[in-house]
């Protein structure tokens, strides 16, 4: 099995949309009927967000089996560091039949290599409980200063 990962392009949007569609279907039994409209809107979103959301795909023997996104955010400049940028790992998905085979590791390493090349201050990830050990094995750590807020529903 030859696993590779690379930056995706807008031409990859339809297959990434298929992976994103599979996700809620497998986890929650989603049975939406707007598949074609979703693929079209997903492809448009990819093009519109290429400057802030860098997509990556993983391939096994030439077939796309996983994806991940590096979301970029500019931070307020400081006197000693005027260009401050961070990243957030988003929408990581590996097809179930390829999980636990190294695909995710190759995909994440490609994403983190890009983060290094861009000189990001840090990279965060909001992970499922199942994936926490995966990220910890790749150098992610918990931080007591990281807090989050979620608005309450009206």
Report mean pLDDT, rounded to a whole number.
Answer: 92
**Beta-strand residue percentage:** 25-35%
N-to-C span: 50 Å
Rg calculated over all Cα atoms: 17 Å
Task: Describe the protein's architecture and organization.
This protein has 154 residues and is an alpha+beta fold. It has one domain (3-132): Gcn5-related N-acetyltransferase (GNAT) (Aminopeptidase), CATH 3.40.630. The chain is built from 4 helices and 5 strands, in the order βααβββαβα. It has helices at residues 13-28, 35-48, 103-117, 132-137; strands at 3-7, 53-60, 63-75, 84-94, 123-125. Strands 1-2-3-4-5 form a 5-stranded mixed beta sheet, with helices on both faces. The N and C termini lie far apart (50 Å). 19% of the residues are buried.
What is the element layout, followed by pairings?
Elements (H helix, E strand, L loop, with lengths): L2 E5 L5 H16 L6 H14 L4 E8 L2 E13 L8 E11 L8 H15 L5 E3 L6 H6 L17
Parallel strand pairs: 4-5
Antiparallel strand pairs: 1-2, 2-3, 3-4
Helix pairs in contact: 1-2
